[in-house]
Amino acid sequence: MTAHVQTSRVSETQERTVSVWQDRVRIRVLSKGRGPALVFFHGPWGLTWDPFLDELAQSFSVLAPAHPGTTPDAHDDIYHLDGLWDLVLCYDELLEALGIRDAAFVGHSFGGMVACELAAAYPDRARRLALIAPLGFWRDPDRIINWMLLEPGELRRQIFRDPECDAARRMFPRSDEQDSSATAARVRMVWAMGTTGKFIWPIPDKGLKKRIHRVKAPTLLVWGKEDRLVPPVYADEFVGRLSDARVQTVADTGHAPHLEQPATVARTVREFLSQ
Fold this sequence. Notes:
Elements: E1 2-10, E2 13-20, E3 25-32, E4 37-41, H1 51-56, E5 61-65, H2 84-98, E6 103-108, H3 110-121, E7 126-132, H4 152-159, H5 166-171, H6 180-197, H7 208-211, E8 219-224, H8 234-239, E9 245-250, H9 257-260, H10 262-273
Helix pairs in contact: 2-3
C-alpha cells in the first residue's frame, strides 16, 4: 500500500491521498489538530470538514477519511469492494498505512456502523467509540427510512429538525440553474449516497448483531431526540449488546445533531473520549 501520494494544505486542514487494497482504492484523508488520534467516519452524504470537526480538533488529532469512491478522480475505485467485509478490511489497511494503532473512533450514521464494525473486527484498534445515530440494526416496528428514495427537499427535512438551519443550508445549497457549484454539490451527494448505499440497502442489517459482542471499547451513543430517519429507539439495540455503553440524547436536533448543534455535541464527545 502507498501512503502520502498527494499532500496539500487548505485553511490549516491537511489533505492527503492514501492508496490501499493493492493500490486499487485511493482514499482522501483530511486531518487537523493536535493530541490523541481520533478517526471520524462520515455519514452517507459525503465528507466535509465542518464546525464539529473543528471543535474536536482543538483537543485531538482528527483524521477524516472519505468513503471509498468519493475521493475526487477516484470514483470508480468503489467497484473494487464487493461487500461490507471488503470495506472493513480496506479501512483496516488505511489505518495501518496511517500508523494508527489505538485511536478514538467517532462515526455518524453509516459511518457509525463502519466504526462499530471496525471495533468489532479489530477490538484493539478502538480506544473509545462515539457513535452518532449509527446504523447497523433493523426493527420492523421502527423502520429506518431509505433516504435514497427521497427527493432533495424531503431529504433535507428528514435529516434536520430545522431544515433552514446553517448546516442544512451548507449541505443543500439553494437550487439555481445557473449555479454550477450547487449542481456539483448535488451530484457529489447523490454519488456519496450510492457508494455508501451499496453496503447498507435494502436494509442496514448486515449481521452486526453477531459481531458487536467483540467490541471492547467504552461506547457513547449520541442521538437527536427528533431523529426521523433512524429513530432514537435504536440506541436500545446497541446498549443491550455492548458491555459498556451509555446514551446521550440531544434536544431540538434530528439525524445530524453534530451538525445542528456542533459545539454541544463536540463538548459531549470530547468529555467522553477524554475519560
